[in-house]
Amino acid sequence: xxxxxxxxxxxxxxxxxxxxxxxxxxxxxxxxxxxxxxxxxxxxxxxxxxxxxxxxxxxxxxxxxxxxxxxxxxxxxxxxxxxxxxxxxxxxxxxxxxxxxxxxxxxxxxxxxxxxxxxxxxxxxxxxxxxxxxxxxxxxxxxxxxxx
Length: 148
Prior knowledge:
Elements: H1 2-19, H2 25-29, H3 33-56, H4 60-83, H5 95-115, H6 125-144
């Protein structure tokens, strides 16, 4: 029994590891702007995991690419929500989950930065600032109503 289970577990593990590959194409192909935002933020979380793994293996080029993917994903998510034209306070369906996701992503980026060597930490400064800015704008929109 144990020998039959092992190949199945290994195949599932390989399939799951393949899912960790960050890819923004499905989010870009989504016509629903709210769903596009969610897919983009999910992609940002996957890209962060990929960046952590690459950093652990000492692959600085892959870390830089994953960090860039995080920023592109967060920008796509925010732009998609803005393009809906909805007031976040009146229609929080997609805005509140995005606010929560960006808050969690910001915390995870901060933790990742603290785990990095001191010399490597500036690599995450720009993306951390952008994620925090998007989070603040989403939170302001939810709390204050329509901006502008």
